[in-house]
Specification:
single chain; about 160 residues; alpha+beta; minor pseudopilin epsh fold; four-stranded antiparallel sheet; about 30% helix; about 25% strand; elongated
């Protein structure tokens, strides 16, 4: 009486595994890219909410910007390296880590700085676009209104398809 598998049974099992992996790979890749994009969207939303809250509760002007060193605003519209929430006097209130580990999504804003004013609930209207290698079809935008409220959309503020 033999115990175990024959070589043919093993090869058939390996072939079936390879076929299933080939079928599952595109779906898994799309799921992974969606998850990374959604995490970047949630980070941007969180940053807007925190900046807006700081402006209201600390009664000071607060700026949200991209940062390369977690200490200063970069002055650029590519915010993929990280986000920074600073006060009018330059005090760093919160630094959020990089959104793009290796090949993750990119975050670009149409402004170098989004300013939230105290007491008036006024903010610089802005659009932050999160893109990955799939381009505009899979991109998402975090749109900040004049009142400082953010919303997520698959289109820009003018209802056009997002450009990456």
């Amino acid at each position: 009486m033999s115990h175990g598998f024959t070589l043919i049974e093993l090869l058939v099992a390996l072939a079936l595994t390879a076929i299933l992996a080939t079928i599952a790979y595109p779906g898994f890749t799309a799921w992974l890219l969606d998850s990374r994009r959604d995490a970047a969207v949630m980070t941007a939303l969180h940053a807007v909410h925190v900046a807006r809250q700081f402006a209201a509760t600390r009664d000071e002007s607060i700026e949200l910007c991209g940062s390369l060193d977690t200490v200063h605003c970069s002055g650029m519209v590519d915010w993929s390296s990280g986000l920074l929430i600073i006060g009018a006097d330059g005090t760093v209130h919160r630094s959020l880590p990089s959104l793009r580990p290796t090949h993750g999504p990119r975050l670009r804003s149409n402004r170098a700085v989004i300013r939230f004013e105290p007491g008036t609930s006024f903010a610089s209207p802005a659009t932050m676009t999160i893109c990955d290698r799939r381009g505009g079809g899979a991109a998402r935008a975090v749109i900040v209104s004049r009142s400082g409220r953010p919303r997520v959309s698959a289109r820009d503020a003018s209802n056009r398809v997002l450009q990456c």
